[in-house]
């Protein structure tokens, strides 16, 4: 996307080198809001892909966690045994 925009608008590099000020930002964008991430990456399925990846990551990390229910204060032998297993 970047190369296509640079080829279509060669004077953009000169404008990018000028100082960015809050007042000039909206003027440079012609009053438009910032573009969305799918339009910047040219990937319309970006959010679905990110959601799938993050859901898998959470599931993979969650499957590695195990909980042990201990009733009462653990004895010293129990603590030593748990440390050996970890």
UniProtKB/TrEMBL annotation:
GO terms for cellular component: cytosol. InterPro entries: FLCN/SMCR8_DENN, Folliculin, Folliculin/SMCR8_longin. Residues 1-86 form the UDENN FLCN/SMCR8-type domain. It holds the Pfam family Folliculin. GO terms for biological process: negative regulation of transcription by RNA polymerase II; positive regulation of TORC1 signaling; positive regulation of transforming growth factor beta receptor signaling pathway. One of its GO terms (molecular function) is GTPase activator activity. This is UDENN FLCN/SMCR8-type domain-containing protein. It comes from Scyliorhinus torazame (Cloudy catshark).
């Amino acid at each position: 996307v970047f190369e296509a925009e640079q080829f279509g608008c060669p004077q953009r590099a000169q404008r990018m080198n000028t100082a960015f000020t809050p007042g000039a930002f909206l003027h440079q964008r012609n009053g438009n809001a910032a573009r969305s991430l799918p339009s910047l990456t040219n990937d319309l399925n970006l959010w679905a892909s990110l959601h799938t990846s993050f859901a898998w990551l959470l599931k993979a990390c969650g499957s590695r966690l195990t909980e042990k229910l201990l009733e009462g204060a653990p004895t010293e032998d129990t603590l030593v045994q748990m440390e050996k297993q970890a």
